[in-house]
Amino acid sequence: MRPLLALLAMIALPALAEDKNGAEVYESTCKECHGDGKLNAPRLGDSKRWGGLVREGLNELVPTALRGIRQMPAKGGNPALSDLEVARGVIFMANAGGGKFSEPTPADIARWRKKADASKKK
């Protein structure tokens, strides 16, 4: 039984390790606009611009990032990102702007996906 568990762990762990953290998502996708404020995107670390967004909370921010808003496409234009990775990118940027959000749970991700799917891009 133990060899089977070890084999399953060897197969599953690399898949889990593939998820990017928030900084990696920012660097690979979000930085394009949020790095220099392109298209009026709030810049990383701009607590004045992020302050209001942080007050809205992740229940607004993450679904918005998943579906897109104004000139920002869904998932920041990177459909290869998982919903978890998008959430981590949002949390990374929000925290750099004064937020104090932690790693989302699977229930958070499911709730945010449902909310994103229920509303159209604004």
TrEMBL record:
Positions of transmembrane segments: none
Keyword presence, Transport: yes
Domain Cytochrome c, chain residue ranges per copy: 17-97
Cleavable signal peptide: 1-17
GO molecular function (one): heme binding
UniProt keyword terms in alphabetical order: Electron transport, Heme, Iron, Metal-binding, Signal, Transport
Pfam families reported in the protein's UniProt record: Cytochrome_CBB3
Region (Disordered): 100-122
PANTHER family linked to this entry: CYTOCHROME C5, PTHR40942
Designated name of the protein: Cytochrome c domain-containing protein
Organism: Dechloromonas denitrificans
Biological classification of the source: Bacteria, Pseudomonadati, Pseudomonadota, Betaproteobacteria, Rhodocyclales
